[in-house]
Amino acid sequence: MQHEKVVIIGSGPAGLTAALYTARANLNPLVFIGNQFGGQAALTHEIENYPGFVEAISGAELTERMREQAERFGARYEYASITEADFKNGRPFRIKDDNGNEYLAETVIVTSGADPRKLGVPGEKEYTGKGVSYCGTCDGFFFRGKHIIVVGGGDSAIEEGIFLTRFASKVDVVHRRDSLRAGKLLQDRAFRNEKMNFIWNTVVEEVVGNGKVDHVRLRNVETNEVYDYPAEGVFIFIGHDPNSSIYAGQIEMEDGYIVTDKHMMTSVPGVFAAGEIQDPIYRQVATSVGQGTAAAMSLERWLSHQEALEEAEKAEASA
User: Fold this and answer.
1) Domains, the chain, with CATH or none
2) Which of 39, 50, 120, 137 is most buried by a 10 A CB count?
3) Which of 86, 115, 135, 241 is catalytic?
4) Tens of pLDDT along 253-296?
5) Looking at 98, 138, 188, 228, which residue is catalytic?
């Protein structure tokens, strides 16, 4: 069974930054990529608010640069997802990947992020990949010249909606409230965009089609009026759920998010967390990078202290 000093679960900005810092500390970290290299950041078409980049950079390029930088200092990558993690029996922690391989880890940094939240309406699952999407960057090209709707009213929904106007003939934003939650700059850009339209106080009740999406069933939350509305694509941006189910019952959580202290330590000594798996508030690349930095630095100091204690105990026992 492979024994590692540092295992990092997840490859978003938090995980890649933690890999960089632990690699530079000569800890030779092993990073499990997970289902999506780079996490949600890698799916973002343009990142305009990451410090140091005057011009926008794609999320895919930014995370690839992070990967190469950490690799330069000795970080290693495993293209697998963690399916089991035993934190209850102390160090070394036993983990298992979806290839059936088992590992022992002296320390762990959990950076497995969050997945797009689903509407949970009829037709959504059936038409995923056939008109329903959770990633404008991934699928926008396939909707060139088509009429689509975007569900949501936060930064992600509006940013992706603006991006989708590059391809779609019309983008209707369906939002359950009468105002957006997105930042003012994004709102201003959206309201000025001639291709964007807003359907307020409305929710999607069903996605309907015949092999592919051709309309949605909408409901006005104020009047309860239900009506069919034409759409060839449905892009859903209503938040994310943390990928924390395999840690349930083993580690302190709140609403599915892992709870950490100011050192990014979880309730289990030796297990740290960073990024969206423990951050329901900010959810930015820059904050995830900062959290990954803090987790890695805290881990290095904690591990050094533990190793010093163990050496002292051995010396005392042999005296």
Assistant:
1) 2-115+240-318 (3.50.50.60), 132-236 (3.50.50.60)
2) 39
3) 135
4) 999 999 999 999 999 999 999 999 999 888 789 999 999 999 99
5) 138
